[in-house]
Write a structure and sequence with these properties.
Layout lengths: L2 H6 L9 H19 L5 H11 L2 E2 L4 E2 L3 E3 L5 E3 L4 E2 L3 E4 L4 E3 L4 E2 L4 E3 L1 E2 L4 H4 L2 E2 L5 E2 L3 E2 L2 E3 L4 E2 L4 E3 L3 E2 L4 E2 L4 E2 L7 E4 L4 E5 L10
Parallel strand pairs: 1-4, 2-5, 3-6, 4-7, 5-8, 6-9, 7-14, 8-15, 9-16, 14-17, 15-18, 16-19, 18-20
Antiparallel strand pairs: 10-13, 11-12, 20-21
Amino acid sequence: MTQKEKMLAGQLYSPADPELSRLHRRAVKLARQYNMTDEEDEQALRAIARELVPNAAEGLFLQPPVHFDYGCFTWFGKNGYANYNFTVLDCCPVRIGDNVMFGPNCTLVTPVHPFWPAERNFRTAPDGKLYDIEYARPITIGSDCWLASNVTVCGGVTIGDGCVIGAGSVVTRDIPPYSFAAGNPCRVIRPITEKDRLMHE
């Protein structure tokens, strides 16, 4: 298996691998271009976003600045939105449904580092560069979710459809559909029901 295949399969891998390094540098370069583009130039932002996150459906808008490890391992459904400082470390697939909104400073973090120090510590590559060995776990966020400001979602987590995640939460375990969840660690506070409607037709 290549290092990329190991990474996407959740196995130990080296991020110093040349193919992964190339993909990472590309994402960093595109994110920098995106972040430096005038917010009024919507056409240019859309074009860069299509390159940075090629697996996104129509209607995605990311409020600059954004940061991605790779971008190409993140999937967005239609009409996705993220406020300032959206960060995605997509070392494993990150799958986001339709109509998902992220508040400012939200972070999706798939990488996991070994607990044993000797396995976690930096190593020296033949070219003298330092690197570490890590692995990753996928993140799945269902459709029609809202993650409020400063939410962190850890690798291996699935958030069901229709959830609201309260500000400042650290999501370390799965959240069932149509739940309001909050806290550190994040836990379900209550279900979201018809009683939460503000507008009645």
